[in-house]
């Protein structure tokens, strides 16, 4: 048991380790890219991050989540207000309470309130939640990119006729009629003013692309309508893409990327439909892009493993999706190079029981191995960012999993949903309390976790985008409050637990090793951490239940990570680690 544990841990460490001195364990390579790849891969970023510094053209981003697409856990006040308003005006406090959850997402909020009231409340929210000062602060803090989620309903033209672009009629309760686009346009102007780059992110699709409340429409248990025959959602999506590209591709030099769909969930929507839709989007995009501007076409990985998209959007492999009818013809939809298409991965460690049960060691190794898998398996095909990640090591933030839904961490999730588990709760929820009430151990773990992600993703990927700029009370997800509490490096590379170059400091390695080998205990926690060294790319941001779908064991393709560990072994590193681990064990 000890030997197996030891080997798997060594494998995990070595995957990113080449020793640079006796006291430092360094991430492998400098950036994970060859100089040639570097200049091609970065596409637009080359010209925007004007410096010869290797880190200068990495994405260092932040998302303005919960603004133009609202999310209950980011602004519970807005949702409580709407619920109270309905309870008062209908005198029905049974229907409108957070347990019976009549208002659980933006869709049901608009439905309950009616168009005018919803419009009124949302306009106040758009005004109050983000303003120019936020952009100024984001730039001052050293970020170079802002990701802005927006829902398809921003393109609704008339709510009384349900008119969408191109004469399409689609009935939904959302507020639109240009309201969000006015704020989006302000945001783009602020980004220009403060020298920030912008990624537009289509975060909500008609019919919902994942059933998460952050798509606008929470749908835990039923089929989703996005791309489903007879629903009109595919046609509407194409019309939305055309409008979005027409309006924004040449509108501002600040816009460096367009993410055509956030988190389509391939366990619920056929992956070939998603792939087809991505190619459709590319066709529309490439017909409208400014070839000289190199705007990045961004696809989310659809919760497929690292490397899944390598041969798609790759002119050398136009045959791979042909059997499914989605193969694209590079002479009719010109793709000069597979590096024009960037893959966006989202990585969280809190939406499955097994991740929540992780030790700090196992958690950091997950990050390091995940970063490594991107560098090793993907970057030669497509640039790739970790476009969502957070400081969360529990899922305890209020409503994180949905209005009225509890946490997996303390087991309340399984009492408030139809999902079941065989695992015991990990503990009592704690991190929903203000950071000032956290103990030093918890604070250390959160900061270390954040630094590990910053260091790893900076070194091993095209860059990263933290989720989220701010929240009301979801502290582990809130850059602004984490920073205030000293749990986020300021400046962004001012690490405590890592070298300024991202190298892991020896005392961290040592403390993690001792955590991995609590040799005084025989209760098996060490084997737990040992088995957690594999990359868990399926850690979906299921703010509302994808972990019920994405279970342990459904991580197809992850085992493909195993072979490359051995390729990176070096005698020096083995010797170094051997000494370190021996010291811990003796
Ligand atoms: C609902 O009614 C209560 C009690 O009258 C009042 O305190 C509260 O402000 C009302 N809330 C809203 C949103 O109108
Ligand atoms: C939910 O609504 C039902 C009636 O529809 C009511 O009997 C029940 O008490 C409500 N539950 C809660 C927790 O408010
Ligand atoms: C933005 O809002 C904050 C309060 O949320 C306020 O302090 C600041 O002055 C506002 N900035 C601008 C430019 O209006
Ligand atoms: C929506 O359509 C109705 C009916 O044709 C029209 O009266 C109204 O002015 C339109 N509203 C907008 C915002 O265009
Ligand atoms: C979608 O568009 C196609 C082509 O324009 C049309 O033939 C089809 O009927 C439309 N489907 C729906 C559901 O509107
Ligand atoms: C953007 O500009 C390019 C280059 O001038 C042009 O080819 C393209 O059609 C324009 N796209 C849109 C949507 O206007
Ligand atoms: C296309 O991009 C180039 C380079 O960024 C820019 O100079 C030019 O104005 C753009 N053209 C249009 C039509 O936006
Ligand atoms: C677009 O990419 C090409 C090829 O990499 C590069 O030569 C050009 O400078 C880039 N244009 C901009 C505006 O970054
Ligand atoms: C697609 O083409 C590549 C290279 O041309 C080839 O190696 C591969 O076997 C082909 N795949 C299929 C499914 O035909
Ligand atoms: C690809 O498109 C071009 C131009 O439309 C056409 O000439 C060619 O035959 C197509 N190739 C395939 C394999 O469909
Ligand atoms: C700190 O808080 C966490 C979470 O409640 C708890 O598990 C841990 O035992 C506490 N540590 C100390 C040293 O108090
Ligand atoms: C780095 O952070 C430490 C606190 O963790 C702070 O004292 C120091 O001033 C920071 N360095 C810079 C250059 O801001």
Describe, in plain words, how this protein is organized in 3D.
The strands form two sheets. Strands 3-4-5-6-7-8-9-10 form an eight-stranded parallel barrel. Strands 1-2-11 form a three-stranded antiparallel sheet. The model is unreliable at 1-55 and 517-586 (pLDDT under 50). It has 19 helices and eleven strands. It has helices spanning 2-14, 35-41, 44-48, 76-90, 106-113, 115-129, 132-140, 179-193, 233-248, 271-288, 353-356, 360-377, 413-416, 440-460, 479-484, 506-516, 525-530, 562-567, 571-585; strands spanning 18-21, 24-26, 59-63, 145-151, 197-204, 255-259, 296-300, 341-346, 384-388, 463-466, 504-505. The protein folds into three domains: 1-66 and 347-586, no CATH class; 68-129, no CATH class; 144-345, Glycosidases (TIM Barrel, Alpha-Beta Barrel), CATH 3.20.20.80. Helix 10 links the parallel strand 6 and strand 7 (296-300). The chain is an alpha/beta fold and 586 residues long. Bound molecules: 2-acetamido-2-deoxy-beta-D-glucopyranose (NAG) (12 copies). Residues 317, 319-320 line the site of one 2-acetamido-2-deoxy-beta-D-glucopyranose.
What labels would you give this structure?
586 residues, alpha/beta, TIM Barrel, 3 domains, eight-stranded parallel barrel, three-stranded antiparallel beta sheet, 19 helices, 11 strands, 36% helix, disordered N terminus, disordered C terminus, binds 2-acetamido-2-deoxy-beta-D-glucopyranose
The H-and-E topology, N to C, reads as HEEHHEHHHHEHEHEHEEHHEHHEHEHHHH
Strand order of the largest sheet: 3-4-5-6-7-8-9-10
Number of strands: 11
N- to C-terminal distance: 17 Å
> If helices are DSSP runs of H or I spanning 4 or more residues, what is the number of helices?
19
Largest sheet, strands/sense/barrel:
8 strands, parallel, barrel
Q: What is the approximate shape? A: globular
Instruction: Give the rounded overall mean pLDDT.
Output: 80
């Amino acid at each position: 048991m000890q030997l197996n544990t030891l080997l798997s841990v060594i494998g995990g460490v070595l995957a990113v380790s080449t020793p640079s001195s006796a006291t430092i364990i360094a991430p492998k390579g400098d950036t994970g890219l060859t100089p040639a790849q570097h200049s091609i891969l970065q596409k637009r970023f080359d010209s925007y991050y004007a410096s010869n510094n290797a880190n200068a053209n990495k994405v260092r981003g932040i998302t303005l989540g919960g603004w133009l697409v609202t999310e209950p856990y980011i602004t519970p006040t807005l949702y409580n207000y709407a619920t109270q308003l309905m309870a008062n005006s209908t005198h029905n406090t049974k229907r409108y309470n957070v347990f019976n959850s009549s208002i659980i997402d933006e869709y049901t909020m608009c439905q309950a309130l009616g168009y005018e009231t919803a419009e009124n409340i949302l306009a106040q929210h758009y005004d109050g939640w983000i303003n120019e000062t936020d952009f100024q602060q984001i730039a001052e803090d050293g970020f170079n990119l802002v990701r802005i989620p927006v829902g398809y309903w921003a393109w609704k033209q008339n709510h009384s006729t349900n008119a969408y672009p191109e004469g399409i009629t689609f009935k939904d309760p959302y507020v639109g009629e240009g309201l969000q686009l006015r704020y989006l346009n302000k945001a783009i102007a602020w980004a220009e003013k403060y020298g920030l780059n912008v990624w537009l992110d289509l975060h909500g699709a008609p019919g919902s692309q994942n059933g998460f409340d952050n798509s606008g429409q929470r749908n835990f248990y039923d089929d989703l309508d996005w791309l489903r025959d007879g629903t009109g959602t595919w046609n509407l999506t194409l019309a939305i893409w055309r409008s979005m590209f027409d309006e924004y591709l040449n509108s501002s030099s600040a816009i460096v990327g367009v993410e055509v769909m956030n988190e389509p969930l391939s366990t619920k929507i056929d992956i070939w439909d998603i792939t087809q839709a991505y190619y459709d989007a590319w066709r529309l995009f490439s017909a409208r892009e400014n070839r000289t501007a190199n705007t990045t076409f961004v696809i989310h990985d659809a919760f497929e493993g690292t490397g899944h998209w390598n041969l798609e959007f790759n002119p050398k492999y136009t045959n791979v999706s042909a059997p499914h009818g989605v193969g694209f013809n590079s002479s009719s939809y010109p793709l000069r190079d597979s590096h024009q298409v960037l893959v966006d991965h989202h990585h969280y460690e809190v939406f499955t029981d097994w991740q929540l049960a992780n030790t700090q060691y196992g958690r950091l190794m997950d990050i390091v191995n995940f970063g490594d898998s991107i560098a090793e398996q993907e970057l030669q095909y497509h640039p790739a960012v970790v476009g969502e990640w957070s400081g969360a090591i529990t899922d305890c933030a209020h409503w994180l999993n949905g209005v009225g839904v509890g946490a997996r961490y303390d087991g309340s999730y399984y009492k408030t949903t139809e999902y079941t588990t065989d695992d015991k709760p990990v503990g009592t929820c704690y991190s929903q309390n203000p950071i000032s009430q956290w103990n030093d151990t918890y604070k250390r773990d959160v900061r270390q976790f954040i630094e590990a992600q910053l260091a790893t993703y900076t070194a091993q990927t095209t860059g990263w985008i933290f989720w989220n700029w701010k929240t009301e009370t979801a502290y582990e997800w809130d850059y602004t409050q984490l920073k205030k509490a000293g749990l986020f490096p300021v400046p962004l590379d001012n690490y405590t637990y890592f070298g300024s170059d991202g190298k892991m400091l020896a005392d961290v390695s040592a403390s993690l090793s001792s955590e991995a080998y609590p040799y005084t205990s025989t209760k098996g926690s060490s084997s737990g951490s040992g088995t957690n060294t594999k990359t868990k790319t399926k850690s979906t941001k299921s703010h509302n239940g994808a972990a019920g779908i994405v279970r342990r064991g459904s991580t197809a393709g992850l085992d493909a990570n195993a072979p490359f560990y051995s390729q990176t072994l070096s005698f020096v590193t083995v010797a170094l680690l051997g000494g370190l681990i021996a010291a811990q064990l003796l």
